[in-house]
Amino acid sequence: MPKMKTKSSAKKRFRTLGSGAVKRSQAFLRHILTKKATKRKRQLRGTSLVHDTNIKSVRAMLPYA
Fold this sequence. Notes:
By secondary structure, the protein is of the alpha+beta class. It has a single domain, classed as Factor Xa Inhibitor (Irregular). It is built from three helices and three strands. β1 and β2 (22-25) form a beta hairpin. The chain is elongated and about 50 Å long. It starts with 7 loop residues before the first helix and ends with a helix.
């Protein structure tokens, strides 16, 4: 059986933790930043976890993670 391919977009966006949870970065911090409040931009820094409802689809994109 051939190897399964990992989605290139997913491997750039997600990291798997030791607990099995999947880490992701926050969206909405790339452009058009002048109209966004400083507090909002500051709170978008850092990472968060993928929600339970989306974890199944992320796992399908990362078969070896």
